[in-house]
Target: Glutamate racemase
Amino acid sequence: MDNRAIGYMDSGVGGLTAVKQALYQLPNEQVKYVGDTLRMPYGPRRTEEVAKFALQIGQYLNETDDGIKLLVIACNTATAAGLPLLQEHLPIPVVGVIQPGVESALDTTENNEVGVIATQGTVDSNAYYNGLMAGNPGIDVRQVATPDLVTLVESNLTDEAEKQAVVTDQLAELIGTDIDTLILGCTHFPLLSNEIQQAMGDQVTLVNAGAEAINLVEQILDDNDARHGIYPMANHEDDLYFTTGDIEPFQKIAESWLEIPVTVKHLEADDNGLSLSKED
Amino acid sequence: MDNRAIGYMDSGVGGLTAVKQALYQLPNEQVKYVGDTLRMPYGPRRTEEVAKFALQIGQYLNETDDGIKLLVIACNTATAAGLPLLQEHLPIPVVGVIQPGVESALDTTENNEVGVIATQGTVDSNAYYNGLMAGNPGIDVRQVATPDLVTLVESNLTDEAEKQAVVTDQLAELIGTDIDTLILGCTHFPLLSNEIQQAMGDQVTLVNAGAEAINLVEQILDDNDARHGIYPMANHEDDLYFTTGDIEPFQKIAESWLEIPVTVKHLEADDNGLSLSKED
Model:
């Protein structure tokens, strides 16, 4: 039994899609989340820089207050760039979102035609391509970088027609192909799943890599006998969400997506790492 | 989302083994439990009588206060005697413990030699035998009635040597056979799993039918979008445990097994059904 929170990190609000699945599947687990909104998007950045940011965040969560019992890198770009580094440097289990997405896609596809949409960084890393090929060398993988979908989510745009137009445009290369499975290879994308499904058609199954990662989290908690106790239960009013950017838009998206009130605090981020802002 | 409790019923404390799994696997679900200790053991009773008792309990749980959203018949004898009757008469999903135990045993056995220990009533019903045969006609099933294990659990005996002697004696027909899987076909028996494992040896895998039933409960909650919300969370101080027998021994076993404080109330049981005792 371990009552510490599970930590989550992302370049912004995308990792909230993994948190939403965790609140559903592991409701009795506290959440500590860092969205590095100041330095987003991660996609166009150098691998070493993304890995460094991810490690700063992991260290902040691990070393502050009671720490965390497990870290989810709820960001595909940061997983591709930094998973081994964080696993090496942090004294807790670290889970990424790519391998769970790969395994779910391999289970889902019936015709072995799989699409991947992700940031440029994730596409360039070939992490999904390599993972899928390792699982089934006969698979046909179509990877497309769709960076505008990240900024679309973070913009909190509400005009449905405008959102659909951006999504359809970004997916142009995949529409009309034979893929029966599409990996949402960026944790921001499930926030656009309706629009993506609409653009792709019902014959395509969307794989939510961030949500799949929660199965691995559950397994690690069980293997380590590390679930939160039931007496007392976790209290989600004690969960903490941090952003390195502006509190208000982050809170707005988080509360709308998670459908609960959330407490958001501001973190200063610089070359030396993260620290809580004085006014908080 | 449905914040009502899940109901559990048993002839005594045995169903607490299913509750323990639920508290672990579905921590955010309230519990309402009835142990019909006054009228236990169910094993030697006529089928119609057991089915009637089970229906009385189901109706009490369903009709009192906020009711329940699902009933687990956490008792093999009552499942064999009354599952279809309760499913027909109660307006909520009703889950038994036999089919989940059958499916787990079929998944577990490697040599198709499966043992079943249960009450006389469950053995006579052939519910496990029929279920196993329907799943795999090539299976070899050895059923043994071990009613003394029920009274052993309810007696709350603490002398380890004495407990082991009773268990080894009751299992005599199975010890030394080729079975590689043993279904604990009575929810009381997991409370003796250490002694049963000791008597059978490590080559035999024990199947906890009551715990397996919680997988089916989880699936039904998901299919009906009926999990308890996370804001606020369930509070296990609000869980209720009822017994038709003496409060003190029930509470002692329940708190020792579940490892949390429990509130126990007394129910009057007669031919007209169940009702809360005046003094509560």
Q: What stands out?
A: The two ends of chain A are 31 Å apart (CA to CA). The mean pLDDT of chain A is 95. The interface with chain B takes residues 23-24, 27-28, 227-228, 230-231, 233-236, 260-261 of chain A (CB under 8 Å).
